[in-house]
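Hey L., structure's done. Input below.
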Amino acid sequence: MLAEKGDKADIENPERDEQRKLDGTRALPIKNGNKIVLRGRSWINDYASNFPEIVAELRKLPVEACVLDGELTFFKKGTEKDVFMSALVKPETRKDYDVKMMLFDVLYVEDNDVRQLPFSDRREILEELVPKGLKHIEVVKTVTGKGKQGYFDELKKKEGEGVILKEKQSPYREGERTREWLKVKNWKSDEAVIVGYTQGEGARANTFGAVILAQKDKNGKWRYVGKTSGFKDSDTRNLLTKMQKLKSSKPVIDLPSGVTVKEWVNPKIVAEVKYYEKTPDHIFRFPDFLRERTDKTPEECKL
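Output:
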């Protein structure tokens, strides 16, 4: 189940509960006897072998079988500060971080399909299912009634990403994006697909200057939504390697006047960008590259 974009006014709706929006990788833990799978949202990756500590604790759950939903999240050691890292990150890269499976929903328990139950009921089931005090598994805190605006403001001060608002009566709609779940961020960000890059100048003459971004319109056609830079050196090297493998000889989108491309790229790489606002033509104003999103598909990048 996926969330639509909401705004701060939605926080005060008494029919919605509030949970922290974590900056991690979406994953569904599946327990079947002693077998544990941590399935990525695209249903391609199984992250279980990367996180034996989480697998060991999932085996302790007091049921024979269940399917849960949550976020694989890295925290700076000894803090609650979440830091985005790929679930496929190498062990030596994450040595200074704690990893947790942050759970926020349940789909099945034993032979019972609970997806049609209200979210408030599923949350209670999840809290009863997961023992407190585990080191690598935790149920995401839920704020109900008064105090939701205060919790949002508290997360903002701590530079948290934002919150997810969930209708108390909402069922779990698998694979759907619906306003029954709303994401409210502390800043504006969106995902777009890289379809090309520009010529770099100065120190970046041998790499690239900016990446050209596109999203799909309602007819499924790629549309120009802007270009962005603001890369770390490591981002520049990694992206250039990937883009060079995806070079295309044909234009992927129509470019506005004044924008030139050095190389076109097949629309496979999803980037998250932070921006000030969008123009009426859906162009990002003052975008900055945040990170590559390997957990999202190009088809999800829509106007």
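The first helix runs from residue 52 to 58. The chain has two domains: 2-185, 189-300.

-- N.
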